[in-house]
Structures are given as structure tokens and as C-alpha cells.
């Protein structure tokens, strides 16, 4: 989630894209929500803060794809009665392009003994005969969150919209065994097939700290048996929403879950930190073990997103042969504000992901379909922004925009020295050296959703540090929303990640998707990504401005910038 506040809660997104070879879908369950007394008048929560092109239902609280017979399906946990956790059903929307969405009737509700007290996260798999199957966690006992794994199938496979689902009488298909923590046993993955067996993972917790991915096998997709050893484990706390998939070692195409590759990704959502971490590694189909390439950095170095992004899921899109990542972003205001707004929770723009040529990390980029929303563009080229100066980008509405900018950096000798004490804590470094703290090379980047007098601004920026003789400079990327709003009592955390790039070439790029109350940013071609939720009180609608700024000693050149107004897609009837 990118937050450390218990009351900022949400369901895990049910990302559920079925595909002809194997599908992925995640449904988010709740975190504990602290109900806040009092209320906020709706008049002080501007409707213009509701996102324009990010996925949301028409109203109320959400969290949660599958590609089937020409349609992408998005199932997500949704409260039809209010903008808080409770009364959860699996709502259902469909799309031809992952951008324009049509809402259908809810697909799954708690209605059998093994899910009567809740339907939580799950995933989807396409069986060899083309049948979609959903594996999901059910709660079968009151007041204890005793977790079991269930299965559901479409009532009518010929219906491309998959409007009805049925649950066979042999549910549950996997239950906690003696010695297992039954309240920390959830979120089955997309299954994969090899050597006569289907396999799936279920997230779990052993003892107080060991998160693990339980491995289950089945010959018939009906009877599942737990393997003696987990696929992998680490001392990180509970593993939620695990995801496991192969990646190509070169090129940008994705692989279906049942295909094999020298490289695999194992991702887990860590309950203790509310962040999504992943490792790159190898998988032995015989020993059924996964080994990270960098075990010393196991689950602490690589994240999909260094901001407000949690409970994500990938799926293989068979149409364009790509793997797509979807994640969920909760609100950063209060439950009281959510009730006043009438909605809470969004999905990030779907991202294409692939292995970076070095093999050390994934690259991410917004899917190409989002570019169909681009309208009026404005471009700037070869503009130098001197120390302490800023440049406004005018001529378009910037409260709902897509901005791509390439910077040329000179004067690297002016960079500050890097303190190795921050080597594993970019977020802390950004909190100390925010956008208004002058530096040598940087901070430089964008002020988005800014007011004309700069009383409000959200800063997306880079800062460069010297890193000792013979080492490449350290590049820090930050999202600093500390001045994003004059509204009191908002949670406005800084987010940051290091960018593994060689800026001694003098070049670095930034892309930001700006959408009223969310900013998604992609540094250096998608090496580092940060999503931030913000709630301006002045910089709303046509009163929002966009600037390039430089608060460092070294001059920065905007070699090229293009900004587009973004049109609204069809969004569930909203």
C-alpha cells in the first residue's frame, strides 16, 4: 500500500485476467479498518479529485483480470453499500482494451459453507479444454478468519462475458493442516502444469516471522496435496498475494505461466510493510525449489513500485504476448473523507513488464492502450533550467495529463557525496533531502498538480550523489507530496527508490501520469516507479499547473518534453 497507517486500508485487488494459456486474478481482502467518528462535509471534498482515467467503479469502496473470448475481465472486491470495508462482493467489469470498462452484475458472493464468512484473494487458470477456473480463499468460520482454498467455474463457458459462476460441492480443495497457521493461509496463485501435475502456491506464515509460499500439487485440478517443502521462504513476515511466473531472458515478450524459462519472478506482498517485493531467480521443476539470484538481498531490494501500490498481480496477455502488471492503490486521506467522497480505492494503470537486459530487475511501462486517451499535446525542446529556476508548461489542462520528459545533466562534479548509511533506505533519504532542499545535481524534475502561487505542489524529481572513486553516481528518485495540499490532517508520505542507471552519460528520462488525485511516475524508462495519492485543495481542475524545476546548483537541460491532455475513457458508467 505504500503507507504505514493502520486505518488506511483496502481490499486486495482482484486482478483477474484469464488468458487462453493461463490467467491471473487477485481479489483483495481487507485490512483492519479503524472507523473514525464524525464526518466531513461533502462540500469540502471536491468531486474533481475523483480520477478521470484510472479504474474505479461508479461509487463506493473497491479493491481487484482474465482474457476470455475477446474480453478482458476484471473482478474486484467491492462494497455496494458504502465507501468503507464491509458487505464485500466480487464485482465484475469487462473491457476490450484494459482502458474502457463496462460494469456487469457481481460474479461471486459468499454462499457456500467454505466461504460463508468471506471471499478473499485468488487467481485464475485456464484449463487445457479452455475452461477458466478460479482458485480463491474462503473464510468458513465466524470471528476467527479460518482460511481455506476454494474453486469456482463459469456456469456457461460459451458466454464470453462470464456472467455466472458456480462452486462445486467438493469445496474446499485445500485446508490448513495441523501445525499450520490457519489465519495466515491465503491467496492461491495462478496454477502451472508440468510433468503430469498442476502446481499452485498459497501464501503463509510460519512462526512469528517466516513468510513462505506453500506449494500444492494436483493431477486433476480437484484434489490438491501440499508438498513437503515450500517453494521458498524468508524472514519477512506473512506473504500475501504471492505471484510466480517465468520471464524471457531477452526481449519484451511475456511468457504464459506454464512455459519454462531460465529465469523466474517470485513476488510477495509483505503484510508487515504493505509493499510488494520481488526477486529474480531460477526454478528447478524436479526439486520444486526456487532460488533467488541475489539471496543476500532477498525481499528487501526490489519492488514493483516504491509508492502507494500493493496486492498486485500479473497475467499473461495472449493477444499481444506480453505480461501485464496490475496493482491497487488505497486512499491516503481518512475513512471519514472516503465516506464524504463516496468512493475509495483505485487501480494503477496496467503496466507491461519484462526483464531488463542485465537480468537484475524488471522494467515497467504503461500499456500502449493508455496512449489512445492522449489529446492535445504541448512540446518543449532544448530549454535550460538554471539553478533555482522553474519553467511552466502551459497550453493544456494538466490536472489530467501524460508527461514525458528527457533531461540532460551536466556538472556532475557538483553532486553531493552519498552517505552509505542510506544504501537500503531511499525513502528516508528522500524525507531528509526533499524537493525544497537545495543540492548539487538536483533535485530536478516536475512539480505537478501545483497551484499558481506554488502553495500546493507535488514534486517528482531526481537527485544525484557522488559514490566514491571509480563507482557510478547514485541516482535517487523521489515523490514528495508534503506540500501537495493545504487540507489539514492528510497523510502525505514521501516515497523514493534508487535508479540503477549510469547518469554519467548525462541523460535520464521521466514519465508521469497525472490524474487529479494520483500521480504515477516512471524513471529511466521504467527502472524505478512510484505511485502517490494526493488531494489538492487549490490545484484542482483548471487551477492545476505543471512546472519543470531545478533546485540544484548544476544547470539542467530539458532536451525534450511532451505533455498531453488525457481524455476520459468509459468507466463503469461513472
TrEMBL record:
Catalytic activity: Hydrolysis of terminal non-reducing beta-D-fructofuranoside residues in beta-D-fructofuranosides
Similarity-based family: Belongs to the glycosyl hydrolase 32 family.
InterPro entries documented for this protein: ConA-like_dom_sf, Fructan_Metab_Enzymes, Glyco_hydro_32, Glyco_hydro_32_C, Glyco_hydro_32_N, Glyco_hydro_beta-prop_sf
GO biological process: carbohydrate metabolic process
Signal peptide coordinates: 1-23
Glycosyl hydrolase family 32 N-terminal domain segment(s): 54-366
Keywords noted in UniProt: Cell wall, Glycoprotein, Glycosidase, Hydrolase, Secreted, Signal
Listed name of the protein: beta-fructofuranosidase
Domain Glycosyl hydrolase family 32 C-terminal, first and last residues per copy: 369-565
UniProt main location, coarse: secreted
Localization terms from the record: Secreted, Cell wall
GO molecular function terms noted in the UniProt entry: beta-fructofuranosidase activity
Xref: SMART domains: Glyco_32
EC number: 3.2.1.26
